[in-house]
Amino acid sequence: LPMLNIDLETDGGRGFPAAVEAFCAKVRNADCFLFASPEYNYSITSPLKNALDWASRGVNCWADKPAAIVCAGANFGGGRSSYHLRQVGVFLDIHFINKPELFVFAFYEPGKFFDGDGNGNLIDAETRERLKQVLLSLHAFTLWLGS
């Protein structure tokens, strides 16, 4: 996505660049979201914030969608970015599951959690099980919100 710039909007703020329009269509059509991101400078990454912002322009595509967060970081495992994303989600009307939470302390022992070939595959069995529980909770919450 291009960096958010209202000068790129057309049609009085109702038209967007093609990449943004395609992204917003995917957001609108999604049943739920799993946000997975590392923590940078105690916050969410710039590309994630940019995506959140673009899909909230005009009609907020995020509104009333269920979501879960998993994050990775240093001594707090990405917890600060998770809580920051939750704050942004309040304004965007994203409905996050509360539990379970998954914070991966990956910066200190990256080889313990992720493969070393640069693909970022999660290899730690305990963390994989915890991720499974997050996904099961998100699935149940999505079905409950849709009922």
Automatic annotation (TrEMBL):
Taking every annotated instance into account, which residue ranges of this chain make up the domain NADPH-dependent FMN reductase-like? 4-103
Species of the source: Dichanthelium oligosanthes
SUPFAM superfamilies attached here?
Answer: Flavoproteins (SSF52218)
Q: What class of enzyme is it?
A: oxidoreductase
User: What is this protein called in UniProt?
Assistant: NAD(P)H dehydrogenase (quinone)
Q: What are its GO cellular component terms?
A: cytosol
Q: Name one Pfam family in it.
A: FMN_red
Q: What is its EC number?
A: 1.6.5.2
> What InterPro entries does this protein's entry cite?
Flavoprotein-like_sf, FMN_Rdtase-like_dom, NAD(P)H-dep_reductase
* Molecular function per GO: FMN binding; NAD(P)H dehydrogenase (quinone) activity
Q: Which PANTHER family match?
A: CHROMATE REDUCTASE, NAD(P)H DEHYDROGENASE (QUINONE)
Instruction: Give the reaction(s) catalysed.
Output: a quinone + NADH + H(+) = a quinol + NAD(+); a quinone + NADPH + H(+) = a quinol + NADP(+)
Name the domain of life. Answer: Eukaryota
